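2024-03-11 09:14:02 INFO queue: dequeued item G-protein coupled receptors family 1 profile domain-containing protein, len=338
2024-03-11 09:14:02 INFO validating residues
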Amino acid sequence: MENLSSRHSKESFESDTTGSFTFQIRLGLLFIVEMAGLSALFVVLLLCIITWQVILPYLRRKSGCRERLSHIHVYFISLLCSDLLLSISGIMNVRWVIQAGIVEGAYCTTQGILKQTGSVGVALSILVIAVNTWGLITGKLSKPPTLKMAITTVLSMWLFTILMTSVGLAVHHTKGQPFYGNTGYWCWIRSPYSLREGIALQYGWLWLTAAVNCVLYISISLKLLGTRRRNINKGADTIVSERERSMKKIAFEMVLYPVIYMIAIVPSSIVRFIQFTQLQDPPFYASDIASIAFASSGILNVLLFSFTRPSLLRRRETMTGYPQLPSSGSPKVNSSTP
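2024-03-11 09:14:37 INFO prediction written
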């Protein structure tokens, strides 16, 4: 690790590279800006819908609203807010497109902070949702968390995320080089800190979430399919048949969660790994594709959760016959409630 660190510390970029970007680089950055802007639009629209349909009725104490507002709404809003921060950091690349280069300073530092905070926030939010879903479906949790517990969890998560972002700035505040700065095409944790701090303060949490996601959601799918096979052995009447189709559909949806998350983070992780372990950066098109995939996180999460958890947006009573994932309802999978 020390050898990698010393090699990576040699790779540093000037604090002002205005006018150095080619047309191809500026065009590639523009694609990132467009994807980030589209993600931000999706996130803001869904936040507005949830606020209108769930939050406002709850605050006004309308009848039935307490049943509609659940712990999963709190976790999901946290995820959307993190996605919004990540999208804003991508949109900020528009300045580097206009200037055809990067200038370190307050704007650059802000982009680096938002990129790190949004990335870690998304990872931790997805991690909490995965653990909660696994616990409810497998029966490890006897009942869903209360709103107070969910809010406490989210506040603790955000406090931890802010603390993680502040650690690097605090530790390296007196050093000669800025902690957040030019990393080639945008701003993030710059050399010589990007190896150890980049893994410890950001990518380590992304990889941890990806690994836990795979284990938990595959475990959920196997349990659902196992329950489905046991019920088929008991009889194949119409009710059981419909229930088993629902379980199969939910099992398929569970596999989508880690797959979608991998689509967003794997390209970026590969590029970072190459940067961490080699003397030269990978070609720009590789970094650009990875960043476009990363910037699509907001779109992917909005579409995934909207289609697989419709009870987040509409009353569960209106979704009769649709296989529901745990939001505020049954904590277990049993023979009567899939």
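2024-03-11 09:14:37 INFO annotate: The first helix runs from residue 2 to 9.
2024-03-11 09:14:38 INFO item closed
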